[in-house]
Amino acid sequence: MPRIMAVTRHRSKSVAAVLALCGTAALYSRHRHQSTNDGEARRSPAAAAGSRRSLSVALPNGGCEITWPKKPPKDVEITYAASYPGCGARMTWNLVEALTGLETGDDWNNNGRGEEVVTVKTHYPQSNGILPEFDDRIGRVFVMIRNPMKSIPSFFNHIYEMRNHLPVHSERAPLEEWTKWRDAYLDIEIAEYKKFITYWMERYSPENRLLLTYEGLTDDLIGPEVTKALNDFLGRARGVTPIHQDSVACVWRAVVKNEPPEHQAAQFKKLQSQAVNTPPGTIQKQTERNLADEQPRDPSGALFAKEQYLRNSAIPLLSPQSIPSPPVQQRRDPNVGSAEIFPIVSGEPANYADGEGGDPFDALNEEMQKILARGKELLRRNQQLDHQNEIHEGPQPQQQQQQHQIQQTGIRNEMYQYDMSHRRLDPGHHNSQRAGPDVPRPYLPRQLDNMMNMLLEVANRYENTDVRLYHIMMGYYEQIRKERAKMNSDEPLNVKSAGGFY
């Protein structure tokens, strides 16, 4: 049966909160990781089905039942789920688990599953993503893209929710907040969008890459067919047996349109209500701590003042003295960051942070790297104590039992200090559609010109090697051009000629 996201395992939940902090911090960093194009030979789902256990069972007549996913087999072939922010990462996370019945993970290891996943969600090389330590094991990718005119505002809505500690997909930022952020960061995100697409197109060959669009996946007419293509692609990976194609439409309605099977509708509504009404930062099953009325604290226990928050982050700048561990060293990809391939459209961003002087994003990233290093150390020590307890199963001297209990309590208490900043990627909040009024997201004429020029550059680059990407880019170009024509601005249209068939 298809599955939806499971509750994370209890031992790594608290440290997952630490890693989630770093995911937000990466909004302001530029990570470069070494990549690989090495991949294993693929087998068709039919040829491989006899050598692996079945994990998905469809109901008759195209029906389905949504349940929790399970851990994949140890030899599962992992697939990247790459998306530019604002292109439906949460939706595809849930969709993959529903189609395969297997647990998924992400580049920051937010749920503590590590390599034991069927897909790894990442925004890399956009600055909100990284490549995991086991990057060299991942030989395939599906890439989610969306019209940047829509995806960039969606990305900002997420930043706004994080900054204001709101439930995920619960609000759209006010117009004035959007315009301030837009004027400071839009040019950078346009360049990031181009860099993201180019990286994944260059890294993987066509047989190991699937290109999806948010528009196609959410379309009432073709959405189920797009999902069937994803289902087929996932099923070509070793260790994955996806749901029968006849039941894909049922899964698509449940995940993408939030229309679960009738016999599960009440259950879904209850889970979503619990997820929305739970204060951001709490972790499922952690019922002994009431976080509803608390504010974020640093590891020393002091409350953060509002002035300590960056304008575009939910994560405060911590004092270096509070987290002594050194930053984590990141691997760099020499093929990413070339000025020739990924030029910044119009210089440096405006200063959007509270306060003056210095680059707050570099400082924030440095502090978050320290938190990540500290979290990994706490997880290592906690697992080491668990291992010692397993070795010494059976009667133990009372003094030894007390010593182990004191050590483990101290570690877990420190881990809990990070919990209020943790944002679950799911579980329970299955609705992928953002709530709140549809606030307009206006652009300046020159900003739309820059966006169109970027799309033309990508389209022309792949016109002869990937005709589908070419048509997608030119379709986005036309949509933006129509919006630009409505502005009646005295500013002349500053866009290169499209040319060719699109």
TrEMBL record:
Segments forming a coiled coil: none
InterPro entries found in the cross-reference section: P-loop_NTPase, Sialate-O-sulfotransferase
Region (Disordered): 31-54, 271-299
Composition skew (Polar residues), residue ranges: 271-285
Gene3D superfamilies (alphabetical): P-loop containing nucleotide triphosphate hydrolases
PANTHER family in alphabetical order: WSCD FAMILY MEMBER CG9164
Protein name from the UniProt record: Sulfotransferase domain-containing protein
Lineage: Eukaryota, Sar, Stramenopiles, Ochrophyta, Bacillariophyta
Low complexity: compositionally biased ranges: 44-54
Family affiliation: Belongs to the WSCD family.
UniProt biased composition (Basic and acidic residues): 286-297
